[in-house]
Amino acid sequence: MSSQVSSHKSTGGGTAAPQGFQVDQRMGFLPPQMPLSRLPIAWEAWEATLDAATSQRFKAAEQLVALDSPQKLVEEEKALAWRKLVDKMPLLSIDNIKGCERGLRRAHLILTFMVQFYAHTTPPTESITIPRSLTVPLLGVSCELNHAPFVTYSDHNLHNWSLKDPHGQDTIPMRDNIQSQLTLTGTPDEAGMYLVGLRMELKGAEALELLGLSAHEIEAGNNIEVGRITTYLTQTTKVIEELKGILMTTKELVRPDIFFNDIRPWLVGADADKWNRKWVWEGEDEVEDSEQMLTKVSSPTAGQSPLIPTLDAYLGIEEDDSKRSFLDRVRVYMDHQHEEYLQSLRLRKKIIRSFVQVIAEERGTNAPVVVAYNATVQAMKSLRDAHLVIVTLYIIIPSRKMAKASEMGAKLSSLLDGLYSETSMPEV
Ligand code: HEM
Predict the structure, then answer these.
(1) Domain residue limits at 357
(2) Rg (CA), the chain
(3) Which parts of the sequence bind heme b (predicted)?
(4) FRET label pair with 386: which of 48, 56, 104, 261, CA 20 to 30 Å apart?
């Protein structure tokens, strides 16, 4: 049997080069250059105010509900003093960071972290008003980046890493040398949670590369080496299996009760306030398009990572309505270049899958490339099953344990039922 296919009908257009969308061959969706760990001195007021928050290990208002009065009062006063500091913080201009992507990303990260500290330490009996000293620069920076003006996966994962040993690049594997820079809670669990994401992004870069090569070869259309595509797919399966292994290390690195009770409350979005308060953004009218921008204020989730949807898109994995609506909801929180990359792949209409289908029709489903493709699809399914285990351990079980949490538990269960039960991943 010939290992070459001479002319595969391409679905039109060519696979856009990932590099044009800030997708790096080695780092995937992580920026190839280490994110800034501090802004220049002109913005020291922001950095120092954030330091003052992280060093004090505040408790979120949701956590204080369970504390007795004296302890609660101490915590509330501590946080109030910090919020007063933020109220008095000067309104710093962002003019001199414009055009500097790393500076803007760092600014976005620290401003959004301060917004979370500010909002979630505000007692439930008070309204939440994010002061002008945060609102105005945050909207400005978000506008420059074309990014949601809220903390996102892009902030706490993609643009929040450093090397443990900056000189160890040639000797220490990146996955063992990478760590997150900032956490909201100072817990090893939160750092561990971000580490899982970082390691998955790094490993995922290998799958993006393999699938990109496959799609490129198929689209080029002449004398396609079916054996090579088979090898790429087999290697991709291995990478996806390793992604699953990394995801499952969450169980070693993150304690479910710490995640649910200590970390999660800080990551709640402005549209999900536990006490149904509407967040007010002081000074929003001073920034153009602020109303439109401030519609993107949902809780961050690793579901905002472009990695898994990009693998789906390359493999032509079907989207049902609930998956599509989830993706439409989260893609506005992705770095816009990544989102454009993902969209360009989704529009390419299943290059790899269509190619494999043609081979299946011509040579049967036992053809090695068909077997390899189906194994890759199965590996994606198995990765999603593992994710469901994580969701159950970290959200469903703790939310059911929590007094009065039945409503939230039920909401999440139905959301997840929608996301997972109808997931169609048909083999060829
Ligand atoms: C403690 C760890 C994690 C928890 C508790 C968790 C929780 C969740 C929840 C509740 C959802 C449902 C949708 C929503 O956010 O509203 C979701 C979706 C999703 N999460 Fe996670 N997640 C975790 C880690 C990860 C990691 C590390 C990744 C990979 C980078 C990931 C990728 C996804 C994806 C792609 C979706 C969309 C559903 C799908 O396409 O299957 N999650 N996650």
Answers:
(1) 30-421
(2) 23
(3) 387
(4) 261
